[in-house]
């Protein structure tokens, strides 16, 4: 009897491990292992570990909000938001207009968010309406909505009547520059707020707090009545319809939220990075965010705040660590190749998992 | 009854306009841009002829997956990579001219087949979202392509010639010159009619592929593909090996894309090793859609109409944009915007149509059920 019990417990143990691996996903394990190896190897090959960790945390704070923007749309069953550039454009409009209207310092950041908001609402509304028309084909169309909006804005950046001398081309006096320095505006306003220095470490507490607030709000929202309804729409549309939830309205709301978060996300990115990048820069910004949340354990129709945090950390860790470690190990900078293969491989893995292939 | 028929008639016109709205829109854009741009008809005709020879083969490679119901094959980039690898080897071995072109094609075929099988297997695991998956596959493979070309060529795979190898000892240079291969295929048998060069041999090759596709549609395999494209479950029940058929469709498309890329690059005269292939899928797909194709239906006629209209826009847009707005960049961005816009529009129309059809089927069912209930 006792022996029997024993075998069942070991069996249960084994099954648990297997379940864990299945649940966590092999690629995710490999990526986590790879990053761990990088952290262990870094001091051995002579890279400065504290600096590396600081960089990773910094980059985490730049990108986390963009990754968070994925969550609402995944919850409402709209799939991965490949149309992130649309939200980014709202953010860029906010950023450039805030500077154009003469705001500076921390105020320019607040104003950028405020100005970006109506754009995000309008663009997100239109985008949501479109996605409601084409249920089932969201991801491909989202990608191309992003691309077309970016290339449309390329013309607009040249044509819109911007005149602030910090932003336009010096020679002709019109048309925005490709990169605009944020010095004197909101360069590192959040990162420098309450920043902690310990030896070589420095932690941008302000940025992390800002992300934490947004993430908490998102978490809280998902636990409200509307939030649960949104999750219901994503996980079981017919059940949601039966219980009287307006599916189109929920999806619309999730798309608007996602677009607004993308707008705030790009502003966060800019304040850390120190520059506004225009024209073709937002073109491929959706892919890193998509693969980050997938690396964190999300799937095409399931995502949580934990996935965002883990995923962004793992992804940014690999992006920051590989160049230095690889360079000092084999004197070859293969980081770009590794980044492409890892990030797109992860998306591919998520898209081709048979269990979720039904949707 | 007669009113119903009338209604059907007007519906048909609306349907026709709706089905061909993209080509109509492009004819309009071209009609506005051509006079503004100020190019002579002779110049335009010559350019169109060149671009027809350059691109038609690549675009034709997209037809077979559409037939098999797999949508627009964004994974044709994989074939383009294979073609480039073939050309790099041919250039490295200093085999030029027509033999070089043929050698490059031969090298590209096995690579294309391998990549095609990989792509097909992946797409079989992602039924219903083939397009986004093939799109991501092209990005993923681009990473592996860089790994091979930038790091393994010269260090593991022998590359002899210093004009191709990077000075650091491994990796291929950013541009590989195909000067001794440039337009060899186009110039052989070329004839000039009133200043317009017609690359007869290239057109013959393209014509052969068209004939092959027409013939292929009538074979058993071609019929199977169409059945799979119509309905996978029904085709499976009828004893067709659905997954295998789908893989074959993708492999064929990839192989043709590889051959097409060799034709494309011999016309261009050099390879941008790390960027030639990245945009090719987008431009080919945009051109096909401009020709009036949709995600589930495309013909050879769409290909040729598409090449002509799309590239006409491509030639005239920059200078027309510069003349209208006084900024040359506007036209550049405009044509990029149009390329993406067309794909977006076509995808939206396809999905909306699919939903409408579904709705209609539902209504019919409802009607039938009501009638039954009445009886």
From TrEMBL, chain B:
Keywords (A to Z) from UniProt: Cell membrane, Membrane, Transmembrane, Transmembrane helix
Compartment annotation: Cell membrane
Principal location listed in the UniProt entry: membrane
Topology of this chain in the membrane: Multi-pass membrane protein
Recorded superkingdom: Bacteria
InterPro entries in alphabetical order: ABC_transp_permease
An example Gene Ontology CC term for this record: plasma membrane
Transmembrane segments: 24-45, 57-90, 96-120, 132-153, 189-216, 247-265, 277-295, 302-321, 333-350
Name of the protein in question: ABC transporter permease
Taxonomic source organism: Enterocloster aldenensis
């Amino acid at each position: 009897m006792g022996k029997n019990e024993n075998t069942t417990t070991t069996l249960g143990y084994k099954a648990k491990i297997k379940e864990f691996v299945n649940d966590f996903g092999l690629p995710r394990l490999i990526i986590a292992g790879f990053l761990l190896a990088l952290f262990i190897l870094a001091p051995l090959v002579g890279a400065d570990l504290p600096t590396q960790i600081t960089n990773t945390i910094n980059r985490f704070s730049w990108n986390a909000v963009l990754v968070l923007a994925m969550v609402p749309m995944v919850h409402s069953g709209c799939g991965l938001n490949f149309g992130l550039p649309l939200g980014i454009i709202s953010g860029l409009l906010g950023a450039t207009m805030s500077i154009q209207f003469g705001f500076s310092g921390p105020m320019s950041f607040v104003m950028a968010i405020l100005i970006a908001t109506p754009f995000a609402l309008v663009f997100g509304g239109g985008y949501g309406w479109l996605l409601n028309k084409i249920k089932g084909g969201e991801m491909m169309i989202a990608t191309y909505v992003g691309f077309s909006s970016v290339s449309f804005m390329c013309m607009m950046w040249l044509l819109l009547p911007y005149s602030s001398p910090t932003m336009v081309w010096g020679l002709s006096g019109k048309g925005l520059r490709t990169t605009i320095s944020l010095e004197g505006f909101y360069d590192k306003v959040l990162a420098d707020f309450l920043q902690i220095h310990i030896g070589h470490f420095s932690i941008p507490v302000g940025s992390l707090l800002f992300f934490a607030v947004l993430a908490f709000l998102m978490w809280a929202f998902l636990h409200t009545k509307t939030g649960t309804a949104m999750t219901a729409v994503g996980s079981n549309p017919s059940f949601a319809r039966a219980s009287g939830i307006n599916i189109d309205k929920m999806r619309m709301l999730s798309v608007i939220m996602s677009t607004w978060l993308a707008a705030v996300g790009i502003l966060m990115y800019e304040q850390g990075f120190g520059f506004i990048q225009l024209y073709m820069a937002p073109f491929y910004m959706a892919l890193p965010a998509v693969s980050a949340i997938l690396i964190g354990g999300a799937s095409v129709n399931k995502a949580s705040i934990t996935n965002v945090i883990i995923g962004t950390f793992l992804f940014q860790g690999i992006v920051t660590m590989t160049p230095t470690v690889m360079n000092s190990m084999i004197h070859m900078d293969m980081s770009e190749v590794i980044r492409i293969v890892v990030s797109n491989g992860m998306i591919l893995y998520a898209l081709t998992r048979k269990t979720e292939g039904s949707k | 009854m007669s009113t119903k028929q009338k209604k059907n008639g007007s519906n048909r016109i609306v349907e026709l306009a709706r089905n061909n709205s993209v080509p109509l829109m492009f004819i309009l854009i071209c009609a506005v841009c051509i006079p503004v741009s100020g190019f002579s008809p002779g110049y335009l005709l010559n350019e169109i002829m060149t671009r027809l020879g350059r691109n038609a083969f690549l675009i034709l490679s997209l037809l077979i997956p559409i037939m098999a119901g797999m949508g627009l094959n964004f994974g044709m980039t994989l074939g383009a990579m294979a073609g480039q690898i073939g050309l790099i080897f041919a250039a490295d071995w200093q085999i030029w001219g027509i033999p070089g072109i043929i050698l490059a094609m031969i090298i590209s075929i096995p690579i294309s087949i391998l990549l095609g099988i990989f792509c097909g297997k992946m797409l079989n695991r992602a039924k219903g979202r083939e397009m986004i998956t093939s799109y991501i596959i092209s990005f993923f493979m681009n990473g592996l392509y860089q790994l091979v070309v930038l790091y393994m060529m010269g260090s593991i795979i022998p590359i002899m010639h210093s004009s191709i190898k990077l000075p650091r000892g491994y990796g291929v240079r950013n541009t590989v010159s195909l000067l001794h291969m440039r337009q060899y295929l186009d110039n052989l048998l070329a004839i000039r009619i009133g200043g317009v060069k017609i690359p007869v041999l290239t057109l013959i090759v393209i014509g052969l592929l068209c004939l092959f596709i027409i013939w292929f549609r009538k074979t058993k395999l071609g019929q199977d593909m169409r059945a799979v494209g119509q309905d996978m479950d029904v085709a499976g029940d009828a004893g067709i090996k659905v997954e295998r058929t789908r893989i074959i469709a993708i492999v064929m498309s990839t192989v043709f894309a590889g051959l097409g890329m060799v034709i494309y690059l011999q016309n261009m005269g050099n390879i941008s090793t790390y960027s030639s292939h990245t945009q090719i899928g987008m431009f080919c797909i945009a051109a096909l859609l401009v020709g009036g194709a949709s995600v589930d239906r495309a013909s050879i006629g769409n290909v040729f109409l598409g090449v002509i209209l799309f590239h006409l826009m491509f030639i005239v847009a920059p200078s027309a944009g510069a003349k209208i707005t006084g900024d040359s960049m506007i036209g550049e961005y405009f044509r990029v915007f149009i390329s993406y816009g067309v794909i977006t529009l076509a995808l939206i129309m396809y999905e909306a149509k699919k939903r409408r059809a579904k709705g209609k089927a539902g209504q019919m069912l409802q009607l039938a059920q009501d009638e039954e209930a009445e009886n």
